[in-house]
Every structure is written in structure tokens, then in C-alpha cells.
Amino acid sequence: xxxxxxxxxxxxxxxxxxxxxxxxxxxxxxxxxxxxxxxxxxxxxxxxxxxxxxxxxxxxxxxxxxxxxxxxxxxxxxxxxxxxxxxxxxxxxxxxxxxxxxxxxxxxxxxxxxxxxxxxxxxxxxxxxxxx
Length: 132
What we know:
- The protein is an all-alpha fold.
- It has helices at residues 25-37, 50-71, 77-101, 106-128.
- The protein has a domain at 46-128.
- Helices cover 63% and strands 0% of the residues.
């Protein structure tokens, strides 16, 4: 049984001819593009956001711990208070570090804003007494 024309392939019998062009076409194009971009500094250096990412991760971990403690019937609001204090300090540190280190990196600042707003809403609910 012979099936032709599946997936736009009309001649499935073709095979690689074994001839490789040795004119250095790829190397030449790669070299040209590398010289074009050699003087352009990276737009957003990855290392600049590392401290901010670590602080953001710490805030998210504290939010997870906060949620676990709220779900635990053995823990009182008084027991959770030290965690809330630490979370407040870390959110302030995250935002200050982001303003200082992220610069023009809008994606990183958007991530920091999302994490900070989530933490601040949880803290506001805690201080307002929603979890009593």
C-alpha cells in the first residue's frame, strides 16, 4: 500500500544527497551578525535582578507559611504575629531593592508589584481582623 500527499509531503522517497556546502555560509552570516551586535550592551542584564528574585521568593515562601498557619486550628493570631512582622519587613525590603536594582526592567518590576500587592492584601486582612 502506497500513501502519497500526507502532511504536504508529496515525494517521501527523497533522501539527503550527502553534499554539504563548504563555502562557510552559516559561519559568514553568524560572523556578520555578531559584529553588528558587538557594540550593543544587553538590554536587561540577568544578574541585576537576582537579589530581587531571591527576595521575591522569600516573600512568596512567607506567604505560603502564613496560609498554612492560618489554616492550622492550633495556631492563634498571636502565634502568627511574628511571621506577619517578618513578612511586612520583607515586602518593604523587596520593593526597595527592586527600585534600586531593577532599573528599567518592566517585567521584573511587574513581578515585584504582583508579589507585593498579594502580600499587602493578606497583611491588610490580617490587621483588619478578617482572620479572627
